Amino acid sequence: MQEYSVETAIAVIADQGATLKVDTQHLRELSFRIGSIFQFIGELNIQPNNEAILQARTGRNVDGIDLDLYYQSLQQLRQFQAKHMKNATT
């Protein structure tokens, strides 16, 4: 987490050079710390100015996660999905 505003409940998360604003107003039970790693699930809302804000419905702190292993698992998942999407259309 790069930034967090208690007043607006808006967090800014970053990963591999990309940033995303996250509206955490429904997650008041979480303790937000700059520099921590979080996962969020919610709806992505595109504002009139084309800014994306994730309306978080749930979230968790995942400090200590092995990010290299996490990225490898994402790559495997994407390959699996691509293969099965291809098979579903043939």
UniProtKB/TrEMBL annotation:
GO molecular function per UniProt: single-stranded DNA binding; telomerase inhibitor activity; telomeric DNA binding
GO biological process, one term: negative regulation of telomere maintenance via telomerase
InterPro entries: NA-bd_OB-fold (IPR012340), Ten1_animal_plant (IPR029146)
Top-level taxon: Eukaryota
Gene3D superfamilies the record matches: Nucleic acid-binding proteins
Transmembrane segments: none
GO annotations of cellular component type: CST complex
PANTHER family recorded: CST COMPLEX SUBUNIT TEN1 (PTHR33905)
Designated name of the protein: CST complex subunit TEN1
Species the sequence originates in: Gossypium armourianum
